[in-house]
Amino acid sequence: MADVNRGNRPLSPFMIGPYYKPQMTSMTSIFVRLTGNAMLVAGILIVWWFLAASYGPEYFATADWVLTSWIGDIVLTLSLWALWFHTLGGIRHLIWDTGRGLDLKSAYTMGYIMIGGSFVLTILTLLFI
Amino acid sequence: MAYMTDRKRAVGLGSAKSGTEHFWAMTKSSYALVVLIPLFVFTFGPMLGEPHDAVAAYFARPFPALVAALTIVVSFMHFKSGVQVLIEDYVGGYMRHILIIAMTCISYAAAATGVLALARLAL
Questions:
Q1: Hey, are the CB atoms on A54 and B86 less than 8 Å from each other?
Q2: Could you tell me which CATH number the domain at A24-128 has?
Q3: Selecting from 2.40.160, 2.60.40, 1.20.1300, 1.10.150, what CATH number does the domain B21-122 have?
Q4: What are the structural domain ranges in chain A?
Q5: Which has fewest Cβ within 10 Å: B34, B70, B77, B100?
Q6: In a mutagenesis test of the B interface, which of A34, A45, A46 is the best target, namely the one with the most B β-carbons within 10 Å?
């Protein structure tokens, strides 16, 4: 009769914050997940832009207007930052997969590179395109 | 006598028999994207905001077209696996199935649309 009281059990509290300190490792990890999934928006916008371009100037005008509007600019700039952060995080995973850098100090170093590097790469990209 | 060897355990993954396909697919797509994404950023990026004739002429050339098409396809396959892991972590029951199927469909639709668009521009 282990299934009798399934509804009334106490739930654990949300741990991150009051009980479990956010750390470089866990925070960069969740942000890699967050950025990766959020980029679906930019991905769909960019595919739409290409589709519109392939069907002629009138359709292209609409898509281009959206992507180069101020909201479009904000979305794409944030997505660019997300892209670099996610890429650096992915490289960190590829390094970890070889068995390297699994100690705490290296993980923290790579975390700082992810955070700083994503902003630097974003600024460099915006300067050069 | 113990018949299990290290190799058999690794290859057959014990009683699970499968399980590294996802990881291997993500590894492959990640290495591909490390190359493709910078190429895409610096081919697509300068073209964003350009007039239609410039865009159409640029992506009619093979290298920009192939970089864009490959990046779109590989990215959406990478996304498909990534979002599946996200859904599996947070959602249960019927919603899990529905969301995974929906995101798979969206991923393939976007990849196909990207290929169509680049083919129309380049051919």
A1: no
A2: 1.20.1300.10
A3: 1.20.1300
A4: 24-128
A5: B34
A6: A46
Tens digit of pLDDT for each residue in B48-62?
999 999 999 999 999
CA distance A30 to A28: 6
Confidence of residue A6 (pLDDT cuts 50, 70, 90): low
pLDDT by residue (tens digit) across A49-84?
999 999 999 999 999 999 999 999 999 999 999 999
Residue of B55, B66, B76, B100 to mutate when probing chain A, most A C-beta within 10 A: B55
Token pair 């006598």: residue: B1
Is residue B12 very low, low, confident or very high in pLDDT (cuts 50, 70, 90)? low
How many Cα neighbours within 13 Å face the side chain of A61?
2
- Let me know: does A98 contact B30? Beta carbons within 8 Å: no
